[in-house]
UniProtKB/TrEMBL annotation:
Taxonomic lineage: Eukaryota, Metazoa, Chordata, Craniata, Vertebrata
GO molecular function: GTPase activator activity; phospholipid binding; zinc ion binding
UniProt-recorded name of the protein: Ras GTPase-activating protein 4
Keyword line: Calcium, GTPase activation, Metal-binding, Repeat, Zinc, Zinc-finger
Organism: Chinchilla lanigera
Gene Ontology biological process terms, A to Z: cellular response to calcium ion; intracellular signal transduction; negative regulation of Ras protein signal transduction
């Protein structure tokens, strides 16, 4: 049994942001922090006060996190980026909203005294004595304090207050992980205040000290327990008056917290086996549980259910059979060929998820070079005469502006070149398309041709394939390459228009250049010769794509694992040292790194011979490094053992916070089952004779911060988590248990009066009865797991009354 938390985040847009640049505009982006730790960064949207991002993320976290904050920033090329404002959502707030937070939130001003983070380790004792008792406070250490100084650290000290008396620790210079080990005593007097206040401060020589957070402890509680020890989370100063909202603009967000208790695999086997039996039997099955699930699932959660079902059947090697069953169900209720797969049915949603999971690398291979070319050329492209702006084009020669007709012709030439290049790349990609995708499209093509065999429907099987491959996969990726990880930044207005026109042209090709599609926008006519040629190319491509042999299908059934050996790759800077100590004449050198299921390797270029750096089985932790350690941001450390079992550390620098967290996430996922994973680590480096983070002199000293192996980002190429998918499906089925019971009663009544024909074997209501029984058993398993063992987290954080 394991408890898991995840945050589904969609950063939609901002409005009415203040202007931070002298041009009267801003260049906004968002940073997402969980408990003060930067996790995500959106792309920058240039020169706007109403940016649209539309970026989606899912973050997996330990259940103990406290808050998620969204900072809207203004990017500056020459100075430090400006903070516009923030929105903060606590874990308790999100937990109280089953459907999550959706809507607009006012940005609030960022107050340095409220920007607290980290924890402090205290031990509190009440000592009996004569004439009165004494309260003893041991201030031991702190971790992950907010850096307040330019060097990326703080100079922390602690101030302890009780009953009008104040005592202070010494100052620890340049550390966010200080250790004090100092003791303070106070006389407990009758009628005195009942709280002990422990405040952390950053000492400054010239300016005022900066507040780092505080803990308020109930003395009565300590008196009752006699002793209390643990890590206490630092809190902001709530005594300050709240600042006004509304003048910094707003942010539209969709944030949903999901807490799941995942049981052992054996608990889910009856549910998995029941669903797999239905899929194997197909439309010949008696109960058609998949059809019942589709019928009773609301539109708003159909995409989520489709994704969960798809991943479950992928893990069972039945993805093709599952999708084939959905194809048959939809074809059985479709009479008009031109409406086939045009709705948001379970089949359509499942195929969308399937292509993203199974075909994303293929999409990148085909589309990547064309998208890169569009971004690099930055040509002005417009086909709609009502939108042509000649002034945006510049001069074609030294003395003359281009006419509108010349702009339109040049735009058509550019789009014809891009469309032709895309169709040629697609035609060459048959072999590159994953076998499971080819086999699924073959089944789709076959089923549609069987349903619409007439000559007048000759193009319908082709359009069925293109409705998914082009209209729901390639075209959305062309219009929003950032959301499909094809580019790191959003396109500017000019590039966006080019991509939109290219996507429209691809849609016309996918619709087989029907008169209806041409009539919608007559100004697309200049592209018709290339569109017609593209239709012929696309039909030839699909014919070859679905021509998958029996032997290839048998091989596919034996191995349907979608997890490619390559997990992640890209350029990183590896730390090189000339001399003793990690900072002695050191530098970072750029290499191309590859993370596979066996090792982390590097090479000078992507095509050159790779050298293994770390075997995955030897990884003990993958964590961030303090900025002050190397004077550089976005540095991570991979702690591992060499072949002799000796501990080693590799320092790698990434180009941005997203790249850093993606690499950390990938490394954590592939090493999650390793033996000997560390519970703590040093976020600094061992410089000279001490650690730069906590100043301890023992190199083998236990780390001063807890590791974050459970903090990961969800990616399209993640390994399948069979138990989690089964749990999510169970949770959905449980939410509609009443509807399923009503459906079961309806089927039972129909059988009694003979209105529902019973198939061979089980009756339809028997399959539903079996499903309801499985749900009851899982409910009982969850109830029995509630008093489970205490958390296995290496450190506990105490919740306090403030």
């Amino acid at each position: 049994m394991a408890k898991r938390s995840s945050l589904s985040i969609r950063i939609v847009e901002g409005k009415n942001l203040p202007a931070k640049d002298i041009t009267g505009s801003s260049d906004p982006y968002c940073i997402v922090k969980v408990d003060g730790e930067p996790i995500l960064r959106t792309a920058t949207v240039w020169k706007t006060l109403c940016p649209f991002w539309g970026e989606e993320y899912q973050v997996h976290l330990p259940p103990t996190f406290h808050a998620v904050a969204f900072y809207v920033m203004d990017e500056d090329a020459l100075s430090r980026d400006d903070v516009i404002g923030k929105v903060c959502l606590t874990r308790d707030t999100l937990a109280s909203l089953p459907k999550g937070f959706t809507g607009w939130a006012h940005l609030t001003e960022v107050d340095r005294d409220e920007e607290v983070q980290g924890e402090i380790h205290l031990r509190l004792e009440v000592l009996p004595g004569t004439p009165g008792c004494r309260l003893r406070c041991f201030v031991l250490e702190a971790r992950d304090l907010a850096p307040k100084d330019r060097n990326g650290a703080s100079d922390p000290f602690v101030r302890v207050r009780y009953n009008g008396r104040t005592q202070e620790t010494s100052v620890v210079k340049k550390s966010c992980y200080p250790r004090w080990n100092e003791t303070f005593e106070f006389e407990l007097e009758e009628g005195a205040t009942d709280v002990l206040c422990v405040e952390a401060w950053d000492w400054d020589l010239v300016s005022r000290n900066d507040f780092l957070g505080k803990v308020v402890v109930s003395v009565q509680r300590v008196r009752a327990a006699q002793q209390e020890e643990g890590w206490f989370r630092l809190q902001p100063d709530q005594s300050k008056s709240q600042r006004a909202e509304g003048n910094l603009g707003s942010l539209q967000l969709e944030v949903r917290l999901r807490d799941e208790t995942v049981l052992s695999s054996g608990c889910y086997q009856p549910l998995v086996q029941l669903l797999c039996q239905e899929v194997k039997l197909g439309t010949q099955g008696p109960g058609q549980l998949i059809a019942v699930i589709e019928e009773t699932t609301s539109t708003e959660c159909r995409q989520e259910v489709a994704t969960n079902l798809l991943k479950l059947f992928l893990g069972q090697g039945l993805a093709k059979e599952f999708l084939d069953l959905l194809f048959q169900l939809e074809l059985g209720r479709t009479n008009e060929a031109n409406t086939l797969f045009r709705s948001n049915s379970l089949a359509s949603k499942s195929m969308e998820s399937f292509l993203k999971v199974a075909g994303m690398r293929y999409l990148h291979g085909v589309l990547g070079p064309i998208i890169d070319r569009v971004f690099e050329e930055k040509k002005y492209v417009e086909l709609d005469p009502s939108k042509v702006e000649v002034k945006d084009v510049g001069c074609s020669g030294l003395h003359r502006q281009q006419s509108e007709a010349e702009v339109l012709e040049q735009s058509a030439q550019t789009l014809r070149a891009h469309l032709g290049a895309l169709m040629s790349a697609l035609c060459r990609s048959v072999r590159a398309c994953p076998a499971v995708v080819r086999a699924t499209f073959r089944q789709l093509f076959k089923r549609v041709r069987e349903r619409f065999p007439d000559a007048q429907h000759e193009n319908v099987p082709f359009i069925a394939v293109t409705s998914f491959l082009c209209l729901r996969f390639f075209s959305p990726a062309i219009m929003a390459p950032k959301l499909f990880h094809l580019r790191e930044r959003h396109a500017d207005a000019r590039t966006s228009r080019t991509l939109l026109l290219l996507a429209k042209a691809v849609q016309n090709v996918a619709n087989m250049d029907t008169p209806v599609s041409r009539a919608k926008e007559a100004w697309m006519e200049p592209l018709q010769p290339t569109v017609r040629q593209g239709v012929a190319q696309l039909k030839d491509f699909i014919t070859k794509l679905v021509d998958i042999g029996e032997k290839e299908e048998l091989d596919l059934q034996r191995s349907l694992s979608l997890q490619a050996p390559l997990v992640k790759e890209g350029p990183l800077f590896i730390h090189r040292t000339k001399g003793k100590g990690p900072l002695a004449s050191s530098s970072f050198k750029k290499f191309h790194f590859s993370l596979t299921t066996d090792a982390l390797s590097f090479a000078k270029t992507p095509s050159s011979k790779k050298s293994a750096l770390i075997k995955l089985a030897n990884i003990r932790a993958a964590e961030k490094v303090e900025e002050k350690s190397f004077g550089s941001s976005h540095v991570m450390q991979v702690i591992y053992t060499d072949d002799m079992g000796r501990p080693q550390t590799a320092y790698l620098q990434c180009k941005c916070v997203n790249e850093l967290n993606q690499w950390l996430s990938a490394l954590r996922k592939v090493s999650i089952n390793n033996a000997g994973l560390l519970a703590s680590y040093h976020p600094g480096v061992f410089r000279g004779d001490r650690w730069s983070c906590c100043h301890q002199k023992d190199r083998t000293d236990q780390g001063c911060d807890k590791t974050r192996s459970r903090v990961t980002l969800q990616e399209w190429n993640d390994p399948l988590d069979h138990d989690l998918e089964a749990q999510l499906i169970y949770r959905h089925l449980l939410s509609m248990e009443a509807t399923l019971r009503e459906k079961h009663r309806e089927l039972s009544r129909g059988t009694e009066v003979g209105t529902v024909p019973a198939g061979p074997g089980e009756a339809p209501e028997d399959a539903l009865a079996a499903l309801l029984g499985v749900l009851q058993d899982l409910q009982a398993s969850h109830r029995s797991s509630l008093p489970g063992p205490p958390s296995s987290e290496p450190h506990c954080t105490l919740e306090l009354q403030t």
